[in-house]
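Let's study a protein:

===
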Amino acid sequence: MPSDNNLKAKTAMSTILLIIVAICAMSCKECPTEQPDYDIYLTVEDIFCTSVVLNVTLPDSGDVSAFALDRDDSTVATYTCHDDDTLIIDEGLTPDTDYICRVRFLKNGKTMSESDLISVHTMDTTSHEFAWEINTLGNYSSILRDVWIVNENNIWVVGNIETDSGTYNAAKWDGDKWNLMCIVNADPKFGIYYFDENDIWMISYGYPVHYDGSSWTLYRFHEMGIDASALALWGKSSSNMYFVGLNGSIVHYDGSTFTKMESGTDVDLVDIDGNQDGSRVFVSGYNYTGELSGQSVVLELKDGNWERLLSSTGYFGDIANGDYGRYMAIRVFGNTAYLTTGATDLLMFNCKTRQLRYLPKNSTVMGGKQLESMDGNDFNDMLFVSPLDLVFHYNGSTYYQDDYIDKTFSHELYYLKIRLKGDIAAVFGTTTVSGFIAIGHR
């Protein structure tokens, strides 16, 4: 028979075991159900003077998710998203200012996870003030159509310059005076693209012309079996050039061969631009008259093919239905393409996020004027002209009307285009008595 001591020991061990089991059971009941992992990420897509575009990524968070945006020490907004990636715009910021941002994933009003903190520095605004020097070139019927600013002592213009001594189609500013030139023939020149002093392209009545440092060569498309007529040009080098023009024509030059590309449109193409590394290229165009009168398109180069990004059938468009009117000038900075349109001051398309944004018409400053030609250094430094009116500068936050040139001339002006490089600007076109170019210094 077991001794009393053994019985007591077994009883004690059983009691201890029961206590441990009870404690474990109670502990398990008190433990919350294990929550799934929720990740949330925040990246910056675009930075402007008074706003930033942020991309919020919520992988595996369900069909409908909520998150909060924190800026510095406060929560500025909460959002509901239906996709893994959501674009948000944080507005009302101060130019040239540092901000710290993060986003928090919310479930039933509680924070389940939060992103890493990111630092954002808004763009600074630029000065509106330019001091203009105005020159006339040629006599009646002269018109300047394009310009290239190399530096303050090297500026080229092209067009049609009629003088008492003859007809010219280009002129070069050497820091002291304009030197008139007749390049290849007397035909008007419509565009210029300058890589260096030994590598210059122009458009001569629809055909490319190239200077190699010793001579100019005219390339006649029709002699190559190419049905095309160029109005504008752009490229990263002389072995990667694009020429766009009438009836939707686009021709690419690879340094040895001109090849016509399919554009998918018969609309006249009037402008082309790409970003610094050439990864984003866009074309805009419209028709004034004919069967396609009023039609307008924007094309995007994707994987070597041109795809239609936007189209319109009216001058002023209908924003509520995604129609922004006539698409005119285009400029590309980084991953964003900027367009002047019939319905807005400025339309912005982000290539990465595929999002369109626009600035409403600024009637206070511009009085409903139509912005047509534009150029700039970046979003915070753009110049615009309204053909029969004035020059406008946008500094990333406000528009400024510069009427110095208009007030200085005693004759009616027609502004054709405007260019900006650094702190040097050029606006040019024609008057009732001559061609003109105004050089601005900031």
Summary: Residues 7-11, 18-35 have pLDDT under 50 and may be disordered. The helical segments are 4-30, 363-366, 404-408. The first helix runs from residue 4 to 30.
